[in-house]
TrEMBL record:
It comes from the Bacteria. It comes from Nonomuraea turkmeniaca. It is found in: Cytoplasm. GO terms for molecular function: protein-L-isoaspartate (D-aspartate) O-methyltransferase activity. GO terms for cellular component: cytoplasm. This is Protein-L-isoaspartate O-methyltransferase. One of its GO terms (biological process) is methylation. The gene is fxlM.
Length: 387
């Protein structure tokens, strides 16, 4: 594919994104300018400009550990970050280098972008991709992202392109007092992209959006667990923390017990991306996320898992709870109960969430999640009132 054809593909990608969501003109212009295909060598250009994530590295057990993120999510987070010309930006998680190149376009010739990654091969690859794209304004360094990069602090903006379990003290220390950070923050196994600013000694969210990223690795990694239930066809189960389970894969191959709720939801829909997933994570310790291929077909869903039994959600005009295994019927009933509670609450979505982050172990109200370095206080604004 020629240079002109790739430019046309980029135009089409951006046009599609702007049909589906708000994308500011500066972010749209950056995405039109930066050749994503140069950051994913080996991927056909027409595939590079689809609105899809591209896995670029897996661990020995087949779990994805690095990728080029979905362009729609990248655009959302870049707009949340609100970068201005001349800004100094710290990126946690270099990946392919593509997001750093977009940031370089946004900060302009007077700005600086520093991208930190824990893997030497990813750092080397990002540098090569940036050079191939003619981008010289990004410094890619190897290190534990939790430590930030104090050499060039303070930063106007900080963005993590890897799922984070906690807010690293170094990040907060290296940001200017009026700075902003945008991170895919883990909330008991569900990630939301949170844009936060300082407010009277703590951090408050300015916007929240659904997202999904590879988890941070190294000493600052969280307790989340991804279990490969089967390699071929691939089937994976994500949990907010370690849990002893039985043969869940075998249970999924058995005929389910189905409970159809009264909550309407057009099919098909990726249930894992719904506010229902966030609701489960914040209210149900048995919650899980299932992705891959099951006997019933492709699955990207949320549910409950216990022992060798599991219940997952499907959307078939109405939300359906499907229970598998010996305790499947009970789990399906519990799952249907959570659906009813979510519906009664006005079906809150990620965008209805408000997040406050306090340093250390602080007093908090509402839904409270205590991390190693921060205490999160969560609440939902009423979708019905739109407040």
């Amino acid at each position: 594919m020629g240079v002109m054809d790739c430019a046309t593909q980029r135009e089409a990608m951006v046009a599609l994104l702007r049909e589906r969501q708000h994308v500011s003109e500066p972010v749209a212009a950056a995405m039109r300018d930066v050749p994503r295909h140069l950051f994913v060598p080996g991927v056909e250009p027409q595939d590079a400009y689809r609105d899809e994530p591209i896995v670029t590295k897996r661990d020995d057990e087949g779990r994805p550990i690095s990728s080029s993120s979905q362009p729609a999510i990248m655009a959302t987070m870049l707009d949340q970050l609100d970068v201005a010309l001349g800004h100094r930006v710290l990126e946690i998680g270099a990946g392919t280098g593509y997001n750093a190149a977009l940031l370089a376009r946004l900060v302009g010739p007077e700005g600086r972008v520093v991208s930190v990654d824990i893997d030497e091969d990813l750092v080397a690859g990002a540098r090569e991709h940036l050079a191939a794209a003619g981008e010289s304004r990004v410094e890619v360094v190897r290190g534990d992202g939790a430590a930030g990069h104090p050499e060039l602090a303070p930063y106007d903006r900080l963005i993590a392109t890897v799922g984070v379990w906690d807010l690293a003290p170094a990040w907060l220390a290296q940001l200017r007092p009026d700075g902003r950070l945008v991170v895919p923050l883990d909330l008991r196994g569900v990630q939301v992209s949170v844009a936060m600013e300082r407010d009277d000694g703590h951090w408050v969210s300015r916007s929240v959006a659904p997202c999904g990223f590879m988890r941070m690795r190294g000493p600052f990694a969280g307790p989340e667990v991804v279990i490969v239930l089967r390699r071929d066809p691939e089937l994976m189960l994500a949990l907010p923390g370690p849990r002893k389970l039985g043969d869940v894969a075998a249970a999924l191959d058995a005929a389910p017990t189905e409970i159809t709720t009264k909550v309407e939801e057009p099919a098909p829909v990726p249930v894992i991306g719904m506010g229902m997933s966030l609701w489960l994570a914040l209210h149900e310790p048995r919650w899980c996320a299932l992705s891959g291929q099951t006997a019933a077909g492709p699955a990207i869903s949320a549910g409950l898992v216990e022992g060798d039994s599991i219940a997952v959600l499907a959307a078939e005009g109405f939300l359906v709870a499907r229970g598998h295994g010996g305790a499947g019927a009970r789990l399906a009933a519990d799952l249907a109960g959570h659906v009813a509670a979510w519906d009664e609450a006005g079906r809150p979505q990620a965008g209805d969430l408000r997040v406050k982050a306090y340093p250390g172990q602080a007093d908090a109200e509402g839904i409270v999640i205590r991390k190693q370095h921060t205490t999160l206080e969560l609440s939902f604004r009423s979708p019905a009132r739109g407040s």
